[in-house]
Amino acid sequence: MAEKRWFWATLTLSSITIVSVVAAAWELAENRFFRDANYLTLHYLYVTRGVASSLLLAFWAAWFVLRQRRKSEEDLRRSRERYRGLLEAFPGAVVLYDSSLSVLEWNASAERMYGYSKGEICGKRLPIVPAAKAAELAEFMGRVERGQPVVDVETLRLAKGDEPFEVQLSLLPYREPAMPAYFLEVTSDIRERVRWRERMLQIEKLTSMGKMAAGTAHHLNSPLAALLIRVQLMRQRATGSAFVDDVAHIEEGLNFCRHFVQRLLEFTRATPVQKQAEDLGAIVESVASFFLPAIQSKRATLLVDACPARGRQVYADRNLLETLLLILLSNALDAVSPGGEIRVYCRQISPGHAGFAVSDNGCGIGKAQREHVFEPFFTTKGPGKGTGLGLAIAKNVVLEHGGTIEIESELGRGTTAFVDLPLAEVPEMERVEQ
Q1: Which helix (H) or strand (E) holds 94?
Q2: Range of the domain at 36
Q3: Do the beta carbons of residue 338 and residue 292 sit within 8 Å?
Q4: Which of 108, 180, 251, 294 could form a disulfide with 212 if both were Cys (CB 3.0 to 4.6 A apart)?
Q5: Which helix (H) or strand (E) holds 219?
Q6: Cβ-count burial of 283 within 10 angstroms (0-12 exposed, 13-18 middle, 19+ buried)?
Q7: pLDDT for position 245
Q8: pLDDT > 60? residue 217
Q9: What is this structure's pTM?
Q10: Could you give the C-alpha distances from 304 to 286, 287, 296, 318, 394, in angstroms and in order?
Q11: Which of the listed residues 88, 117, 151 is the one where a domain comes to its end?
Q12: By the 8 A CB rule, do 376 and 342 touch?
């Protein structure tokens, strides 16, 4: 607006100046050469002066306006080139599309990431969304239309002639005057980050295994000692029903030991991520029983209530959820003193969500430290007692399953980790898989 006012002020002042100069020059010419001219001659001179002033003023105004227009067009061209340069140089894939997923803009990074050139995709329906993620994108677009931008969400996208791969997505509204609303999608390839996260997950698993080794040995010692006693009794009573009972006890103890060792082997084995409908309550009970020896070795108490989530299914990778629970239980065990208490309880948050919480009455975390607990390599434990990766991995696992995780803690009063997960719609999942 200020530039427009300056333009009209400059044009007006320059026009007034031109008219004044022409009038002054014409007046000097009359006084010098036409001082004794008659009325008719003077009349024609005045008419000629008016016509000459008008023509000169018209030419000047036209030249000034055309020059300003050329300048504006040049500025617009440079601005467009700058915009195109920034768009093409941006490291993330930038895609602009409308509510029907018709592509309007496609930058060079998108060409490299997805394998489609701008010419073959602009004006056509967006082809990079896997079928299993179509409903998710529709939900994201609905949130953006309601004024809730989607920022830094992990999801999947599909390259030309390739398998779906992991990307970090941000979806923002894009509006132009007198035009319908568009959606600006910015994605970056995070496959390498996911691979590193999986490696860190294995490191954290091995760390947890080391912490549980002492408790495991203690837990196995009792049934093995009982087995030795039974064997000694068998030597004394080699026949009769007592012999049969002793053999049954030995078999029961051996099955317990075998099951426990098998769980250890399954825990350390690296397996691909495979999501399916899993019983959340059953997972919580299984992991709690698995971790119980480590808790007992510290003379702490474990209270488990999985009833609210028993039979409630979440669409998840069982191995990742078990690791998530082990990380939270391991942190709780490190926080409590001998004789302390750890609680694991499930809860139904809403008709479509369920969750669980791991609570302890340990040392707690200060307010300043709580803001950083999910950052990689940040730890409140002493030297050599933690990698600082546990809660960072836990948060990534929860986000990968579409859930949330929150930490509530107070120094000297303990810590509670709340995990919220969406429930699986089993019939819908089966239709997608078919």
Answers
A1: strand 93-97
A2: 2-88
A3: no
A4: 294
A5: helix 191-236
A6: buried
A7: 67
A8: no
A9: 0.45
A10: 11, 10, 14, 19, 20
A11: 88
A12: no
